[in-house]
């Protein structure tokens, strides 16, 4: 897992735990897997931890008092603190799932990564495309206003929604207060999860009922799978009804995702990337990047150095979509040389801010293209 200056999301399941992520695609930065419960193979392989011991229970209860004191100091009301901490217990299952995540070491050989095609088939299937197009049609009355306000195509926001929760079909059923308190107490990333626990209480302090505050085991919630801190900072009221309902309201969901992308630096009017054809004789040593990314290095190592589209054309690489000659792009060949290829723009890196996995980002871009047709 990678947590940048924007620890906004926390994917905890499907995309994060597939084998190709572990073997070279990079673990989603947000722990960012959809809030659905983990796939059965992941659950089956999770370490089985014993029930909480009396010492763990006592320690957890004491730590919960420290979290309550911090929430109080940050302005959370006493009734909310009491409501959100009542009956909370340590959850060994959450710790088992957390410890079962694949590592993200930097020594993996990018060339050994599995093909993109199985991931593509799993995430851009006919059912997901059809459901996304239906959502697109429903959004027609208010989508232009959202696109104008945030500069992000509705199709891109829909593709995120489709990848995260399959348009709301699965958002997770873990009690977020219990999960976040348990993860904070465990200590592996204590400050991250303690801060998210406090943010969750601040959400509850706005009147959101505790029963609605469920999601992934790692704290992600709603259609877009925002962490509580992301919800507080970036969730939007997309239809002017005075609420930021990312659980039930399509306009709020899509406006919130669009706002996230604008905040992360999305460039209006520019695609995420385009398919490309690559000549057999392309000198790949001359386009190799010498940069080492400060985060998700395995992910960024999969593509070339940045050149303008005009410079790629001069090397025989031909974009198969509409893109300006002066746009800076990087080449990725996810299935290896001589197979599929894409020229990626800076907007692709914005998708990586949501989930730092090349296969995830490619699937979002390509699904958005399908929804726009």
Topology (SSEs and partners):
Layout: H1 19-25, H2 40-45, H3 54-73, H4 78-85, H5 92-99, H6 117-123, H7 126-138, H8 143-150, H9 154-165, E1 174-175, H10 176-186, H11 190-205, E2 214-215, H12 228-234, H13 250-264, E3 273-277, H14 297-300, E4 307-308, H15 309-314, E5 318-319, E6 328-332, E7 342-344, H16 346-354, H17 358-372
Antiparallel strand pairs: 1-2, 3-5, 3-7, 4-6, 6-7
Helix pairs in contact: 3-11, 5-10, 7-9, 7-17, 8-13, 9-13, 9-17, 10-11, 11-12, 16-17
What is the structure about, briefly put?
By secondary structure, the chain is mainly α. It has helices at residues 19-25, 40-45, 54-73, 78-85, 92-99, 117-123, 126-138, 143-150, 154-165, 176-186, 190-205, 228-234, 250-264, 297-300, 309-314, 346-354, 358-372; strands at 174-175, 214-215, 273-277, 307-308, 318-319, 328-332, 342-344.
Structure in words:
The protein has helices at about 20-25, 40-45, 55-75, 80-85, 90-100, 115-125, 125-140, 145-150, 155-165, 175-185, 190-205, 230-235, 250-265, 295-300, 310-315, 345-355, 360-370; strands spanning about 175, 215, 275, 305-310, 320, 330, 340-345. The chain has about 375 residues and is mainly alpha-helical. The protein has a domain at about 275-345. α3 (about 55-75) crosses α11 (about 190-205), α7 crosses α17 and α11 packs across α12 (about 230-235). The chain is globular and about 65 Å long. The protein starts with 18 loop residues before the first helix and ends with a helix.
């Amino acid at each position: 897992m990678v947590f940048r200056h924007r620890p906004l999301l926390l994917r905890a399941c499907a995309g994060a735990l597939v084998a190709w992520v572990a073997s070279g695609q990079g673990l989603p930065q947000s722990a960012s897997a959809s809030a659905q419960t983990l796939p059965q193979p992941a659950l089956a392989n999770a370490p089985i931890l014993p029930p909480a011991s009396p010492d763990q229970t006592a320690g957890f209860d004491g730590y919960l008092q420290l979290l309550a004191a911090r929430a109080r100091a940050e302005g959370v009301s006493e009734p909310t603190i009491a409501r959100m901490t009542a009956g909370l217990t340590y959850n060994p299952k959450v710790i088992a799932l957390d410890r079962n995540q694949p590592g993200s070491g930097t020594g993996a050989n990018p060339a050994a990564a599995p093909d993109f095609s199985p991931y593509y088939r799993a995430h851009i299937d006919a059912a997901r495309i059809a459901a996304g197009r239906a959502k697109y049609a429903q959004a027609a009355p208010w989508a232009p206003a959202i696109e104008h306000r945030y500069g992000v195509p509705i199709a891109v926001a829909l593709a995120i929604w489709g990848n995260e929760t399959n348009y709301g079909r699965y958002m997770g059923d873990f009690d977020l207060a219990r999960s976040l308190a348990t993860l904070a107490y465990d200590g592996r990333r204590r400050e991250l999860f303690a801060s998210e626990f406090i943010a969750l209480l601040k959400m509850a302090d706005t009147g959101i009922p505790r029963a609605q505050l469920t999601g992934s085991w790692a704290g992600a919630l709603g259609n877009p799978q925002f962490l509580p801190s992301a919800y507080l900072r970036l969730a939007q009221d997309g239809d002017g009804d005075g609420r930021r309902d990312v659980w039930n309201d399509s306009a709020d969901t899509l406006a919130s995702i669009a706002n996230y992308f604008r905040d992360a630096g999305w460039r209006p009017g520019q695609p995420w990337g385009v398919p490309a054809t690559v000549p057999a004789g392309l000198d790949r040593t001359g386009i190799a990047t010498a940069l080492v990314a400060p985060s998700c290095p395995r992910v960024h190592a999969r593509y070339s150095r940045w050149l303008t589209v005009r410079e790629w054309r001069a090397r025989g690489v031909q974009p198969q979509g509409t893109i300006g000659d002066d746009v800076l792009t990087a080449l990725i060949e996810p299935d290896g040389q001589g197979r599929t290829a894409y020229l990626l723009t800076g907007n692709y890196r914005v998708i990586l801010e949501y989930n730092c996995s090349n296969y995830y980002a490619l699937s979002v871009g390509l699904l958005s293209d399908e929804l726009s047709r």
